[in-house]
Specification:
By secondary structure, this protein is mainly α. It folds into two domains: 14-107, Rna Polymerase Sigma Factor, Chain: A; 112-264, Butyryl-CoA Dehydrogenase, subunit A, domain 3, CATH 1.20.140. It is 72% helix and 0% strand. The chain contains twelve helices and no strands. The termini are far apart.
Length: 265
């Protein structure tokens, strides 16, 4: 990739051109070759892949997934357009994550049973939320579904890949680490889309504040601080498996809420 000046359309605003120039200078110009790119951004690939380890098949070779991420990194470098307004690391993370989930869908497609159980879980959560006026606790959901606490825990374990898969679907969570917000940044939505996005983000913030304290902490550490579930578990005093269960529970509550909103529109 060369470092020749980017040609900007005459109608582009000065602010847009300045922002694009800074993005180009800060994130792409130093990576003149693929070797330079890999040296600078391999840690980004590793961090991104490690974050989604719980979604990967048991016994998986992490190096294989890192290689998929590295290939996506190179593709991102070749197609990056600073005029889109996103920094290169931001753009690359999207491509790396998309590549991981594309491969995950290819080798381990979601079964109809998994999707049906997720639907049952979200239905139970939605019903209890409306009845109780608050997000339900795990024992309440287990009782509604006719499951013992142990069976409910196994259900959460089973659904963790399904919940991570849902992160590739648009507009049920909004943060810099999720596709709904990232794709909006890249596609430069119009005023109506921006208004809807702000309303969804506000609704998301309100709903997160209603969650139990532990669930709020797990979501915050994972999505906003970028920690792995293994690290979150160590910080909060439980295992990675339990951190995964709490994550599934919290995301399922949010999905159920936003699904009801979507269905009411």
């Amino acid at each position: 990739m060369t470092t020749s000046p980017t040609i900007v359309a005459p109608e582009a605003s000065l602010t847009h051109r300045v922002r694009a120039a800074h993005c180009y200078r800060d994130s792409v110009e130093a990576a003149d070759t693929e070797d330079d790119l890999l040296q600078r951004y391999t840690p980004l690939v590793i961090r991104t892949v490690q974050r989604y380890c719980p979604a990967l098949p048991a016994g998986t070779d992490l190096d294989d997934w890192i290689n998929i991420g590295l290939f996506a990194l190179v593709q991102a470098w070749r197609t990056y357009d600073p005029l889109r307004g996103a920094s290169f690391p931001h753009f690359a993370r999207i491509r790396i994550k998309t590549a991981v989930f594309d491969e995950l869908r290819r080798i381990s497609p979601l079964s109809r049973g998994d999707l049906a159980r997720r639907h049952e879980l979200e239905e139970a959560i939605d019903q209890l939320s409306q009845e109780l006026g608050r997000p339900p606790e795990e024992p309440e959901i287990a009782a509604r579904m006719g499951l013992s606490p142990e069976d409910y825990g196994r259900l959460l374990d089973r659904l963790r890949g399904v919940v991570f898969e849902s992160l590739s679907e648009p507009a049920f969570l909004a943060s810099d680490e999720l596709p709904s917000r990232e794709l909006a940044d890249l596609n430069q939505p119009g005023p109506v889309e921006q208004l809807l996005d702000r309303e969804l983000q506000e609704e998301l913030r309100k709903k997160i504040l209603e969650l139990p304290d532990t669930q709020r902490k797990v979501l915050h550490m994972f999505y906003f601080e970028g920690l792995r579930l293994k690290d979150i578990g160590e910080l909060l005093g439980f295992t990675e498996a339990r951190a995964c269960q709490i994550h599934v529970q919290a995301v399922s509550v949010l999905r159920a809420h936003f699904k009801r909103i979507r269905n009411s529109i």
